[in-house]
Design goal:
alpha/beta, six-stranded mixed β-sheet, 15% strand, binds ligand F0G
Length: 445
């Protein structure tokens, strides 16, 4: 089994049509120095015999080599920016399941629905797909310290991979605004946790400036090497579906890195002949943090209006100024995609439904089911459509949210108003004396 790819043809390339400048991947760049545009890692691929590649990807599943068993690096011919696989930093990420979800399907008035559960990654979110490639590039560049701003999952993942690589990790998080599960992970994995008095967008701006001025290597999704790994979410999904594209692929939208990465992966797979059509992408945002939705609705496509005060209990996607919005637009154009937004109540109920399928997820992930339900009701998605939704984070990331929902204590404070989220599908626990008869009466046994 070959463990190296051919000498890489990878370059950094500005995505702006008027620019398209290219740079060596050995340069430490996050945006285009000429026009500040976003950068892609672009390749001149060896034109594959698609069937040979598919066989190679499959054969690696039974290999003993660490890089072959990774659900990202197993597909390394599609992300060939690494010449020497000895540089790869991996925790056996990816390899996530696709579940059928009959109760969730019924809830959304669909015949069938499937979830690709990225919460089954080593640190419990899809970020691991991108951190394995991000930390690998950091190692290739000789970085000693890595940094990110985060609503919690990016930081948890970066902390784990930095520890793995023996690098210093520094994470910037909005104080008191990230779920405990995520905060505890960053502490456990040994990164320095810096709490910022401000929101995610403030933290993002700070860390971007610091990365320009210091040796900190930035590992937010503005770093195009992160997105190379996240492409593998789409690649692995297509492999699991025997390379037959579903009608719809549904993802939550926050900073919009994931929509961008999945769009690039789909586009490249079709260019290379691995698939013959693209699914339509549906990006779902929380109402209080939905600048992409508003942009798509507006007639003026020249200005993107950030949300100055993003608000949602789905803290993972509490983002008002998504850095990758232009790449997300490109993904929507390639896939004839749509953007929907959903309320706090819709997110909470959808999350409980996903739980009833025995699957579970964190709040941001449940935007997918809530959005699908709305798109079906609006006639955009047909009830017999073939749909895969990406659950981005594990149910154990945010236990406080779940417990509050199931005990009717979930409240959402926006501006001065407090909204009570109803536990429409709440599963209230009961407290009873430690007495067998009392329990039998309770259980009617
Ligand atoms: N779902 C979860 C669970 C997330 O953690 C995030 C983003 C998203 C969805 C949105 O993905 O940003 O690529 O559009 N979390 C980031 C973080 C921002 O810092 O953990 P996106």
């Amino acid at each position: 089994m070959p463990t190296t790819t051919n000498p890489t043809t990878a370059q950094l390339r500005c995505i702006e049509d008027h620019c398209r400048a290219t740079f060596a991947i050995t340069e430490r760049l996050y945006t285009c120095p000429n026009c500040q545009g976003l950068l892609d890692v672009a390749y001149e691929f060896d034109k594959p015999l698609a069937d040979e590649w598919k066989a190679l990807f499959k054969a690696r599943r039974t290999s003993d080599a660490e890089v072959d068993r990774s659900g990202v690096w197993r597909f390394r011919e599609l992300l060939p920016f690494v010449n020497d696989t000895a540089n790869i930093v991996t925790l056996n990420e990816g390899n996530t399941p696709i579940y059928t979800a009959p109760r969730s399907a019924e809830y959304a008035a669909l015949d069938h629905l499937r979830f690709k559960h990225q919460g089954m990654n080593p640190t419990g979110s899809f970020k691991d797909n991108g951190m394995t490639t991000g930390l690998t590039q950091a190692k290739i560049l000789g970085a000693k310290a890595v940094a990110c701003a985060s609503t919690g999952n990016t930081s948890a993942s970066m902390a784990a991979y930095a520890a793995r690589a023996g690098m210093r990790g520094v994470v910037f998080i909005p104080a008191r605004q990230i779920a405990y599960g995520k905060l505890s992970q960053s502490l456990e994995y040994g990164s320095l946790v810096v709490e910022i008095e401000g929101n995610f967008d403030d933290a993002m701006k700070l860390v971007r400036d610091l990365a320009e001025e210091t040796e900190l290597y930035l590992l937010n999704s503005i770093n195009p090497f992160r997105l190379e790994g996240q492409k593998a979410i789409a690649i692995e999904m297509l492999e699991q579906l025997h390379w037959l594209a579903p009608d719809w692929l549904v993802v939550p939208g926050g900073n919009l890195g994931n929509s961008s990465a999945i769009g690039k992966g789909l586009f490249e797979m079709r260019e290379l002949g691995l698939i013959d059509r693209l699914p339509r992408l549906a990006v779902i945002q929380a109402e209080g943090a939905s600048p992409l939705y508003e942009f798509m609705q507006s007639d003026d496509k020249t200005i993107f209006h950030p949300f100055a005060h993003p608000a949602t209990l789905a803290t993972a996607i509490k983002i008002g100024k998504p850095v990758s919005w232009k790449k997300a637009l490109r993904a929507l154009a390639w896939t004839n995609g749509v953007v929907e937004r959903v309320s706090e109540q819709e997110i909470a109920d959808a999350k409980a439904m996903i739980g009833r399928d025995g699957i579970g997820c964190e709040p941001a992930s449940a935007t997918t089911l809530a959005g699908i339900k709305k798109l079906v009701a609006a006639g955009v998605i047909k009830s017999d459509a073939n749909i895969v939704a990406v659950l981005t984070g594990n149910v154990m990331k945010d236990p406080t949210y779940s417990i509050h929902y199931h005990t009717d204590q979930l409240t959402f404070n926006e501006a001065d108003a407090e909204q009570i989220i109803k536990g429409n599908f709440a599963n209230k626990g009961v407290r009873v004396a430690a007495d067998k008869q009392a329990i039998r009466r309770l259980l009617e046994l």
